[in-house]
Amino acid sequence: MVRNGQDLGSGLLFIAIGGVGLWWGREYELGTTANMGPGFVPMALSGILVLMGLAIGLRACRGANTAIDRVHWRPVLLLTLAMLAFAGLIRTAGFAPAIVATVIVAALASRESRAREFVPLSIGLAVVCVLVFVVALRQPVAIFGAS
């Protein structure tokens, strides 16, 4: 008997996402742990998602009965918009502006966030990401402007 609908829903979502990952990744070569193929990490992560979903789903049958909380749409919509902003801006505006926009839009998902906190955070994160990915790892991405 299901006692915690939120855990059941979360578990099923994890299983569904992991299952889709396993399905899409089935055509990639896995390789071995010593010589990983292009499908090794995606398949491993998808498998972990399925296992986590099973564990969370089983937990739904134990413990106290809890009702499902209402959906808070502001964070759902703004976090989705933040991901879309990054995807839409990285090629046109560049890596650094895409990160700044992503952090600012994501910060607006919480009513407690303040511009004096998240604006410097977004700039600092952009600088760190440029140093790590563009400078240190030499990723071929434009920092500002189209690539």
End-to-end CA span: 54 Å
Number of helices in the DSSP assignment:
5
Work out the count of structural domains: 2
Helix content: 55-70%
Mass-distribution shape: flat
Q: How much beta, percentage-wise?
A: under 5%
Using DSSP, what is the number of strands? 0
Could you tell me the mean pLDDT? Answer: 91
Spell out the blueprint of helices and strands:
Layout: H1 5-25, H2 40-59, H3 73-89, H4 95-107, H5 115-136
Helix pairs in contact: 1-2, 3-4, 4-5
Can you tell me about this structure?
The protein is mainly α and 147 residues long. The protein has two domains: 5-59; 73-136, no CATH class. Helices cover 63% and strands 0% of the residues. The protein has helices at residues 5-25, 40-59, 73-89, 95-107, 115-136. The longest helix has 22 residues, at 115-136. It is flat. The model has no long low-confidence stretch (mean pLDDT 91).
Task: Output the keywords.
147 residues, mainly alpha, 2 domains
Could you provide a short overview of the structure?
By secondary structure, the protein is mainly alpha-helical.
